[in-house]
Design a protein that fits this description.
The complex is a heterodimer of chains A (about 280) and B (about 700). Chain A has helices spanning about 10-20, 30-35, 75-80, 85-95, 100, 105-110, 120-125, 145, 220-230, 235-250, 260-280, and strands at about 5, 25, 50, 60-65, 65-70, 130-135, 140-145, 150, 155, 160-165, 175-180, 190-200, 205-210, 220. Chain A is an alpha+beta fold. The longest helix of chain A is centred in the C-terminal third of the chain and has 20 residues, at about 260-280. Chain B contains 19 helices and 27 strands. Chain B has a seven-stranded mixed beta sheet with strand order 3-5-1-12-9-10-11. Chain B has a five-stranded mixed beta sheet with strand order 7-15-14-13-8, sandwiched between helices. The longest helix of chain B has 19 residues, at about 340-360. The chains are: A alpha+beta (about 280), B alpha+beta (about 700).
Chain lengths: ~280, ~700
């Protein structure tokens, strides 16, 4: 049998965690699959389970001067339907899994699963989303890229709960998202590219590029981005080849059951180029 | 006026399935029932040197080859697959033993503690390796006219090779089976297509007399050929387990186990050598078909037969040399799958025609039409096309409805349109029907009529179509026709539910019985009419020389596919399919359209996203996370139309339909992709990875 806790409040949850290591479960859409052992047999968990998906204080989505706060247990469907969530992020979420899964899966689950194919991650990396971790005696705020250490590994401590994510309240003028999967829906990502830019009067004021599933972590380089910011949109086309070359060094995909390294690399670079060409037409 | 037989009725099984009331085998509960879990080989080829068992607790059992009371081989066309492994294993996933007991937790624990020691041997996996090492299971050859001379006279010879990949059935309900003794009679219940195949397998493995075995089909959630021969294997497993434990035993596979060990569509290579005369007409074909049968031959010889008898498709080629070989490899055995070998060769020849036409600078469709079979033409095996061939009408409809030629002209790069022509031989291949001699019984019981057949409902609509044929003939409401439980103790053997034979052959017998019953209706309150299938007299077939009518009649069709390729990522989008079929007369138009759309979608899946490969004998795509089938997002609009062409010996003129639906979409999609990229497509599945490589000059 599996021991499980269903705390009534976040405080109660944190208190339990301060004395006992638990596996924290919200929607369970990754965990239940990863720990499955066969039909009609309970999944295998080596620690007690703690359910947190029902905690109201973890479900809220609201805005203040820091930005938009997304509760850890906000489900994907709620994010898709929420007026505060930026349009491109909604579009990305809308391409994740299937409606039943989106009704269960939470944003924190997608982050803590720490897969390079996690579909909320390119956005969170691109906008430098802040992860808020809470324990009984401490609150830590960490950038997403620092929170995820390697595939399947984060820096969360056993007594902490990821309580919310803070993203900037910002929409970009140019948004580009392509998710490539084996089929058009209900598919894990084999390559994804998120491109966002602010182009005003032909000047690039801000720009972000993030790629999923093409390296051990999300590919996102503030340094390369910086080289494009404050350029004229028209100039960027000439830069494309050089920029693509720089990304090529960061993109280190693998062969797996879903695609090939060579395709992933070529498709990524072609998508970057396409995004840049799109901007240059502004 | 009486409604046409084609007018749709509510599907008999829809209500219970939609409401969740249908009881699948995994819903069944027996008193004192035990569960079984299979321990399988983890090596592709090895000698088993030792099996170390942990202490087995009370009420738990290990069942292996030593418990088999009869023959430890699964009976099928070639009975070579051991029920439980003996000294050696030949593929990863091969069953070695079962752990049986009341609690699945404990079963899993015992399974995890079993240690099997192997001495590994060199294995082989690909068709190329198998051909090099000549691991041939079956080698067939037939000729027509004088191919040698024709090739000498040909002014031009064009050669090409096409390949196709694995396909997993992905029936919604995984394999599930159960067995129990009632008194001293063995009952086997499960999800299956062919109760009498299972019964025949049990006869040998259990060494019981015929009257002591009953096989009962339970609600079957899809099959597509995947539940044709396979339930003979797991059926014997639970039977041996129940024989040892004397308790009911249930064995339900998880999806991953099902994918690991159940049969799949044969990967294939088809090589063509075409001899052309001075008018560019193909006068001779040399066709070489290679199928990857996996570790045991099983049903593969008959799959190979259909593959080679379908290899000239709808075309009349005067001189032929056709060879087909099944190769042994150390992979899970391949088996029956909708189309049964024909989709592989028809994909090949359709692409060959397209590719030769493009080389010659001729419109592919026009080039195909020049070679079309017509009524009374000889078939590839020297039989005769007895039926009227309505391909011109079919093609004209498909061309007009899809605006084919206009789009062919105006499509830009990365937009493509392609057409396929195809047929399917109805019913069993060759002697099949005359060997089976399907028998059916129709019983009048006051105001209801009971139909007794061994055809099963597996999602295709048999439970609606067969009663409808009887009801329509007798002029009684369909509710008054009762489909007897498919239990070999209650029904005659009308043959397996395969080869698109149910409506045409079994439905045909029911129609005959119903006509007789109608004439005799007032004779008595209760009486029975029974018929045994008889092949029409004008058909002849020689199984030794493969000469004659391989099939009594054919169904025909044309598919047009429209595609778009993303120029950046090479993702393929199928925009539209236009399909026109001649299946004689539709028995229920809505049910039939559903079946045709389903087959088209399954064909699209095989041709595009359904990638399944192996590495060192292990499936790389081993679960539904990695092996994808189309969702509604991947499925285009499908226009489906029929050309009526009643078949004299089919009920109300019906011919075969179920498999015909599958064969057309793969070559149509591939042709459309060729058209979009201006590059030849020789292999399916067509993936973005492959297209990016092909179009590498971009």
């Amino acid at each position: 049998m599996v021991k499980a806790y269903r705390p009534n409040t976040l405080t109660e949850a944190l208190e339990i965690l301060s004395t006992e290591k638990c596996t924290i479960m919200a929607g369970g859409t990754d965990l239940m699959v990863q720990r499955a052992r066969g039909s009609a047999v309970l999944p295998g968990f080596d620690r007690p389970l703690m359910f947190v998906g029902h905690l109201k204080e973890l479900q809220k989505i609201y805005q203040d001067e820091e930005g938009i706060h997304i509760g850890a247990a906000a489900i994907l469907t709620d994010m898709m339907e929420h007026e505060l969530i930026p349009g491109i992020f909604k579009e990305m979420i809308g391409q994740m899994a299937s409606p039943p899964t989106r009704n269960m899966a939470t944003i924190a689950g997608n982050i803590c699963n720490a897969s390079p194919a996690g579909d909320t991650l390119p956005y969170l990396y691109a906008v430098n989303a802040q992860i808020v971790l809470q324990s009984t005696d401490q609150k830590r705020i960490i950038a997403t890229r620092d929170f995820i250490i390697s595939p399947k590994k984060t820096c969360i401590k056993p007594d902490e709960i990821l309580v919310k994510i803070i993203i900037p309240a910002k929409e970009y003028s140019n948004n580009y998202y392509r998710k490539l999967g084996q089929r058009k829906g209900m598919s894990l990502t084999k390559v994804s590219l998120l491109g966002m830019a602010d182009v005003v009067d032909g000047n690039i004021l801000d720009l972000h590029i993030a790629l999923g599933s093409v390296a051990a972590s999300i590919v996102h380089s503030p340094k390369i981005e910086k080289s494009m910011i404050s350029k004229k949109a028209g100039e960027i086309k000439e830069m494309a080849e050089e920029i693509v070359k720089q990304y090529a060094d960061l993109i280190r995909p693998i062969d797996d059951a879903r695609s090939t390294a060579i395709y992933r690399k070529k498709a990524s670079l072609r998508l970057i180029k396409d995004f840049m060409e799109n901007i240059s037409q502004e | 006026m009486k409604e046409s037989i084609s007018t749709s009725v509510l599907r008999v099984d829809s209500r219970k399935k939609i409401r969740g009331e249908a009881e699948y085998i995994s819903d069944w509960k027996f008193e004192n029932m035990l569960y079984a879990k299979t321990v399988r080989s983890t090596k592709a080829k090895a000698k088993i040197t030792a099996i170390k068992l942990p202490d087995i607790p009370k009420d738990y059992y290990v069942v292996d080859r030593n418990d088999v009371p009869g023959v430890n081989r699964m009976r099928t066309v070639v009975s070579d697959h051991p029920i439980f492994a003996e000294e050696d294993v030949q593929y990863i996933g091969q069953p070695i033993l079962l752990v049986v007991g009341p609690d699945r937790e404990i079963i899993y624990k015992i399974v995890s503690q079993i240690e099997i020691k192997y001495q590994e041997e060199e294995a082989l996996f690909t068709l190329e390796e198998a051909e090099k090492r000549s691991t041939v299971f079956t080698d067939y050859n037939y000729k027509k006219s004088d191919p040698k001379k024709a090739f000498e006279q040909a002014v031009r010879i064009i050669e090409d090779e096409y390949s196709t990949g694995y396909q997993e059935h992905v029936y919604l309900e995984p394999q599930g089976i159960a067995a129990e003794y009632k008194d001293d009679t063995l009952f086997v219940y499960g999800s299956m297509q062919c109760p009498f195949y299972v019964k025949n397998a049990l006869l040998e493995t259990m060494a019981l007399p015929e009257e002591k075995i009953r096989v009962v089909q339970t609600v079957t959630g899809g099959a597509f050929g995947g539940k044709e021969e396979f339930p003979s294997l797991n059926g014997c497993h639970v039977a041996v387990a129940t024989h040892k434990t004397r308790q009911p035993v249930v064995m339900i596979y998880d999806r991953d186990e099902d994918i690991l060990c159940s049969t799949k569509r044969h990967p294939s290579i088809t090589r063509f050598k075409a001899g052309l005369d001075e008018y560019d007409q193909i006068i001779a074909l040399d066709i070489d078909v290679l199928l990857n049968a996996g570790a045991y031959n099983g049903l593969s010889p008959v799959v190979l037969q259909r593959a080679i008898f379908s290899a000239t498709n709808v075309y009349n080629i005067e001189h032929l040399n056709v060879r087909g070989r099944n190769f042994m490899t150390n992979l899970v055995p391949s088996g029956a799958y909708r189309g049964f070998g024909a989709p592989q060769t028809i994909f090949g020849i359709e692409m060959m025609f397209q590719d030769i036409a493009l080389i010659l600078g001729i419109d592919p469709l026009e080039y195909k039409m020049r070679h079309l079979l017509k009524q009374n033409d000889p078939t590839c095996t020297g039989g005769s096309i007895h039926e009227e061939v309505k391909m011109k009408e079919i093609v004209q409809k498909a061309v007009e409805q899809s605006d084919y030629y206009n789009k062919l002209k105006t499509n830009k790069k990365y937009q493509g349109i392609g057409i396929s022509l195809f047929l399917h031989g109805c019913g069993f291949t060759g002697k099949g029907e005359t060997l089976i001699k399907g028998k059916i019984i129709l019983q009048k019981n006051k105001d209801v009529v009971i139909l007794k057949v061994s055809s099963v409902e597996m999602g295709q609509g048999a439970e609606t179509v067969l009663p409808k044929i009887v009801a329509h003939t007798l002029d009684i409401p369909i509710e008054k026709v009762i489909y007897e439980t498919v239990d070999t103790g209650l029904i005659p053997d009308s043959g397996p539910t395969v080869a698109s034979r149910t409506t045409m052959i079994v439905g045909g017998l029911l129609r005959e019985c119903a006509l007789e019953m109608k004439a005799r209706w007032d004779e008595a309150e209760t009486f029975e009419v029974s018929k045994i299938y008889k092949h029409p007299d004008f058909l002849h077939w020689d199984d030794d020389t493969f000469h004659g009518d391989a099939y009594p009649v054919h169904s025909w069709g044309a598919n047009v596919a429209e595609v778009e390729i993303d120029p950046i990522t090479y993702e393929l989008t199928i925009k539209k399919i236009t399909a026109v079929f001649d299946v004689g007369v539709p028995i229920d138009e809505r049910a039939l359209i559903g079946q045709m759309q389903g087959g088209i979608v399954q064909g699209i899946g095989w041709a595009t996203i359904e990638v399944m490969k192996t590495a060192n004998g292990k499936l790389i795509q081993k679960n539904l996370t990695d092996y994808k089938i189309p969702t509604s997002m991947d499925v285009p609009g499908i226009d489906c139309d029929f050309v009526l062409n009643p078949y004299e010996f089919g009920p109300f003129g019906a011919k075969c339909a179920g498999e015909l639906s599958f064969v057309g979409s793969p070559p149509a999609v591939a042709a459309a992709v060729e058209n979009a990229l201006g590059k030849p497509i020789k292999d399916i599945p067509i993936t973005p990875e492959m297209l990016m490589e092909i179009d590498n000059d971009h």
